[in-house]
């Protein structure tokens, strides 16, 4: 039988259009950059929750995006099929903080760049972004927040919200009302405050409790979504 079938070509349609060595090299660089991104996220971010969980997803996300781009970039039919699939299947993950979304988009960008073959420019741009993160957006004095949500609960009908806000205003640079609730079961107020540089949170608590020793007061950082 003179005709010989090339099994590899049969199993890999469009493989002739892909440089295997270049693809493997790009994939290796993609994984290196993705794991560097993971290390940055875990060690340098100021995210308060889910660092290890989100961090473990970043290299996998980059690898998946890389694979998808490699498969579809040489085939118009597959590209159109991917658009149809994405209209049905949507990637969802519980995002509590905007910083997590930034890192997820950066992981996707890494996979896209290396999958499309833009090795040099992707490496340069991602490196610059990581330098920016290290210098400006990492866990330094620039990233530290001075905004808190102040939650006050009280039952004493003689205590008014105006008295509470007057007490708090003397300790903060800015203050805004997030929520105020009044009812038969008690009253509750949530304020977003930015304390003065020299103000200690204990001072605010002590002054508020002069209105009513039974006041329940709690602080938590404004950037968290509990």
What does this structure look like?
The protein is of the alpha+beta class. The protein has two domains: 7-137, no CATH class; 148-221, LOR/SDH bifunctional enzyme, conserved domain (Alpha-Beta Plaits, 2-Layer Sandwich), CATH 3.30.70.2690. It contains eight helices and four strands, in the order ααααααβαββαβ. Strand 2 (172-183) and strand 3 (186-195) form a beta hairpin.
Observed structural traits:
about 230 residues; alpha+beta; 2 domains; about 15% strand; disordered N terminus
- Poorly predicted ranges: 1-5, 7-16
- In percent, how helical is the residue content? 40-55%
Kindly give the count of domains: 2
Form type: elongated
Task: Describe the oligomeric state of these chains in a short phrase.
Answer: single chain
What is the spatial order of strands in the main beta sheet?
Answer: 2-3-1-4
Number of helices: 8
**Count of DSSP E strands?**
4
Euclidean distance between termini CA atoms: 71 Å
Helix/sheet category? alpha+beta
From N to C, what is the helix and strand string? HHHHHHEHEEHE
Q: What summary fits the major beta sheet? A: 4 strands, antiparallel
Mean pLDDT: 77
Radius of gyration: 27 Å
Report the sheet-strand fraction: 15-25%
Can you summarize this structure?
With 226 residues, this protein is α+β, with helices and mostly antiparallel strands. The chain is 52% helix and 15% strand. It has two domains: 7-137, no CATH class; 148-221, Alpha-Beta Plaits (2-Layer Sandwich).
């Amino acid at each position: 039988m003179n005709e010989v079938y090339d099994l590899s070509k049969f199993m890999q349609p469009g493989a002739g259009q892909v440089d295997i060595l270049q693809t493997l090299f790009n994939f290796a660089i993609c994984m290196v950059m993705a794991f560097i991104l993971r290390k940055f996220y875990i060690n340098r971010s100021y995210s308060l929750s889910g660092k290890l969980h989100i961090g473990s997803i970043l290299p996998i996300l980059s690898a998946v995006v890389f694979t998808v781009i490699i498969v579809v970039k040489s085939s118009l039919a597959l590209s159109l099929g991917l658009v149809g699939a994405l209209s049905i299947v949507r990637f969802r993950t519980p995002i509590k903080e905007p910083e997590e979304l930034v890192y997820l988009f950066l992981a996707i960008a890494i996979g896209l760049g290396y999958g499309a073959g833009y090795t040099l420019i992707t490496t340069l741009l991602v490196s610059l972004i990581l330098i920016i993160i290290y210098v400006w957006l990492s866990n330094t004095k620039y990233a530290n927040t001075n905004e808190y949500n102040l939650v006050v609960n009280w039952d004493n009908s003689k205590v008014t919200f105006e008295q509470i806000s007057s007490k708090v205003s003397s300790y903060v640079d800015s203050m805004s009302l997030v929520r105020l609730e009044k009812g038969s079961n008690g009253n509750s107020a949530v304020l977003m405050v930015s304390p003065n540089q020299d103000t200690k949170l204990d001072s605010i608590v002590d002054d508020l409790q002069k209105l009513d020793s039974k006041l329940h007061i709690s602080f938590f950082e404004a950037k968290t979504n509990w």
